[in-house]
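Risk mitigation, structural track. In case the binding assays with magnesium ion fail to produce interpretable data, a predicted complex structure has been prepared as a fallback.
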Amino acid sequence: MKVYKFGGASVRNADGVRNLRRIIDDEQQLFIVVSAMGKTTNALERVFAAVQRHDAAAARAEVAAIRESHAAIVEELWRGPRRIERVEALFDELDGLAARDDYRAEEAEAWYDRIVAYGELVSTTIISEYLNYAGVRNAWIDMRRALRTEQRHKDAEVDLEASAPLLRGAVAAAGGTVFVGQGFIGGAPDGTTTTLGREGSDYSAAVVANILDAESMAVWKDVDGVLNADPKIFPDAVQIAELNYLDTIELAYSGAQIIHPRTIKPLQNKNIPLYVRPFGDKRKPGTVIRGMSAKVEVPILILKKEQELLTIRSRDFSFVLEEKFAKIFALLEHYRIKVNLIHNSAVNLSLCVDRTWHIGEAVDALRKIGFDAMRAEDMELLTIRGYTPELWERYACSQQVFIRQATQSTVRIVRKRG
Ligand code: ASP
Ligand code: MG
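Fallback model:
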């Protein structure tokens, strides 16, 4: 079995879906994991935001727009008007959710998951139907039933052990050799829908590869492979041919948009190679990620955006260290705040964290238990691996730098957004 993952950009229009069909070619024993089409997840987040405001009219208008853009893709794929009943049924359900007025703030995450999951449900339904129509017999797998996650919404982790019999059972029951499943979504023990964090489809695909003992996994992307930097930010970016699992985790954690940070572990556990390949040209080799690789010879620059800097100090001037650390981190974990860099002095603890929903509440809670907490918004985290004096000069010495942490090979910089 091979696992192919197609991201939203790859299937953003009818041409993309046709290209997906070409990439599959006559491959048998294939599990295809697909994200929501184009920017659908962002649009669904707007539906959720409207529901949150109790603005049913705006929520339903967003749903109508999403429905229309998908209908246009379907029409182009079949080269004429075409109604897919299962797609219509999904949009009816979603519209029903948008119209409800029993949203409760205490259940924000669960509502988010319920709504946002439709992007993948719809995309896989369209793609599965299209593949059948285009000669690739396949079975649609409902990942809400095949992947069991922890009982946590919006950023759930998959329970591999509990999922293995479910996914294997679903594949066996569906029969055939080609399967289409949703990235990004799963089901909690209580039966509700969960999502795995933005960009989580890579992680879904890796879990599938692990459970089905795949020989390889490929992520088809709109880039030639893994680059040493984001070319939009650093124009001199070059491609890296090979990476090992460990470096890849480091890069993903630092914010490289290669792959979701949780993707590597399920692959590493079964030693499954991961290919990052260009969607636009199947002949190009892309990048391979596996246990062992050649040394990376170029510096790697990664910019993680949407960061905030929290500076925490104990009000009685006692050391922030030791047992206070445990308190602070337990509190951050409670509010699901991801810490990307830690910097401490005798009385200060500075944390660079992802900008998320609950930072304000966490800061209030810290203040309540005796800390002064300051919050600097609009930050970004730049990581340079294998820096040179020139790169140091250029990036580490600017006035905007709040924190600079260096080892022999790597420097990490927290700075005001550029
Ligand atoms: N559709 C989801 C997102 O946009 C998951 C993914 O693309 O991997 O975040
Ligand atoms: Mg996406």
